[in-house]
Design a protein that fits this description.
globular, two-stranded antiparallel ribbon, 13 strands, 263 residues, alpha/beta, binds flavin-adenine dinucleotide, single chain, Rossmann fold
């Protein structure tokens, strides 16, 4: 079973307490902030390793990011992944989720044979949860989001999918794409042997030209998303409880909405 896991290196916001934004560029301030593997992606790596232990095969991790994203790949190798690929090129800087899913899906096609592609349910910095579904769509593969359990028999997959107060069971055939949640497993610690192996591992760096990426579809200029402003919303004001019977409350609410010119 060949499994590809897409991981993103993100700032360790827990160690910071909160994210800091550069008001001029509308980007995250990353300087001096330790980086980690996106926590949901650690669950994806763990699941891939467990599936490999059960069914055999190979786990390949891939990330698209700046050169220092290599650290995240070495951590995944130390956990037990077999191979890692870094997709990094100045031409990719500023890519939004559309451009990122285009670049990643092209890289996955270059990797070739695979049965499963795993993603975290979302990145804790960008937070859009769009990259996994975008990749699945571009590869024309079935996708299951919010996965908390996977059972595989031959080429059939049964996935438990987390809903707000329940879960549903969804079945599909491999190859397929899965976005995983934290409920799925407890990521393992790296062994000393794994750390030593990861330290020595050669990690190929793929450039935009290695993938023959269309320049018009990558980087800031190739990204249709424009970030106009990022700000921390004001905490909501104190609400007001309306008194009286239900008809009295409705009447009071309607008159308040009229006063505020909402209706
Ligand atoms: C040189 C360079 C610099 C970059 N700098 C930044 C930056 O400063 N800030 C930034 O947010 N992004 C940066 N990126 C990466 C890219 O632009 C974002 O990853 C992308 O927009 C993801 O959006 P998101 O965070 O909302 O992910 P989501 O859609 O929320 O992520 C969902 C899941 O998709 C996967 N995923 C997401 N991004 C990647 C990725 N890059 N590689 C592999 N798997 C991924 C993970 O499994 C993740 O759990 C950079 C890329 C390059 C090449």
């Amino acid at each position: 079973m060949n499994i590809i896991v897409c991981i993103k290196q993100v700032p360790d916001t827990e160690s910071l307490g909160s994210v800091r934004i550069n008001g001029e560029t509308n980007t995250l301030i990353r300087e001096g902030i330790p980086s980690i593997i996106n926590p949901f992606d650690e669950n994806a790596i763990e699941e891939a390793l467990r599936l490999k232990e059960k069914h055999g095969g190979k786990v390949t991790v891939i990330t698209m990011g700046p050169p220092q994203a290599e650290e995240a790949l070495r951590k995944a190798l130390a956990m037990g992944a077999d191979e890692a690929i870094l997709l990094s090129d100045p031409a990719l800087i500023g890519s939004d989720t559309l451009a990122t899913s285009y670049a990643l899906s092209t890289a996955i096609k270059k990797i070739g044979q695979f049965d499963l592609i795993l993603f975290g349910k979302q990145a804790i910095d960008g937070d859009t949860a769009q990259v996994g579904p975008g990749v699945a769509e571009r590869l024309g593969l079935p996708q299951i989001t919010y996965v908390r359990k996977l059972e595989i028999e031959n080429s059939k997959v049964k996935a438990q999918r987390t809903l707000e107060d329940a879960f549903e069971v969804v079945e599909t055939k491999l190859p397929a794409v899965f976005m995983v949640t934290k409920e799925m497993n407890e990521p393992r610690y790296s062994s000393m042997r794994g750390v030593l192996r990861a330290k020595k591992a050669q990690i190929p760096v793929w450039k935009a030209t290695d993938l023959d990426l269309d320049k018009e579809r990558i980087g800031l200029d190739g990204s249709p998303t424009q970030v106009i402003k990022i700000f921390t919303p004001e905490p909501p004001g104190k609400g007001e409880l309306l008194e009286g019977t239900v008809p009295e409350q409705v009447e009071a609410l309607v008159s308040k909405l009229r006063e505020a010119k909402v209706i």
